[in-house]
Design a protein that fits this description.
By secondary structure, the chain is mainly α. The chain folds into two domains: 1-59, SP0561-like; 61-244, no CATH class. The protein contains twelve helices and no strands. The protein has helices spanning 6-12, 16-23, 35-42, 46-58, 64-68, 72-105, 111-149, 155-159, 164-170, 174-177, 179-184, 196-244. Helix 2 (16-23) packs antiparallel against helix 4. The protein is elongated and about 75 Å long.
Amino acid sequence: MLEKSLHDLLEENHSYASVLHWCGIDAFDYLDETLSDVCRIKNLSIHNVADALAKVEDKQNTRFAALQRMSPAEMCNFLQHTHHHYSQRMLPVIEHHIQQTALAHHQQYPQLLLLSKIFDTFQKDFLAHIQYENKVVFTYIKKLERFAINFNNSFWIELKDFSIGDFILKHHHDDDEMFTIRKLLNNYQVSSYDCLAYKVLMHELKTFESDLKSHSLIEEDILIPRAIKLEEKLTAKAKQLVRLN
């Protein structure tokens, strides 16, 4: 790996581009250089960069079975960690590669100029959505779990301004959010004639959309049904206490 050019490495695995970016290497500026040479040029630890690339091969998504063993609060923490990964790592890299590829190859791929504008809007809306989930929805679900463990009379006061029904009404399917981008890019299809930068970008967008679908399934199929049951149980308990008093 160390003596392969960055071009060959990216051809082998398109996911390496984002990892190199996080390590401080803009791969498309050094395509003809070997990984070891680039690390020396950038004054980076060869072993740290190689280890980061190796982890791409070992990366596995959290299985639904493991998620089902989590409590609602633990699941919220997992999803918040995923949100941080989206906002701090994935989206900035994709945005950079869109701009970089559009600048260098807009004559071959004129759709990238429009993609840059669409993705900017998508990114702002998406970040607002995950901020709403982090600050409002997940906080509410964690409170539900806390009251399930230790119920007290402050239930109505702390939870009166929100319900899971409010979230369901606002929740958009991630598949729909990427529809315009996917349609513009012909379902991220590439051919052997496409340049490496375009192949990498299509891979990143396709992978990101796949992650969003998995994220949405976790919320819709596991977390929200559990939160609804908690909410119903606690509401019934609170109403019973009101009647007794």
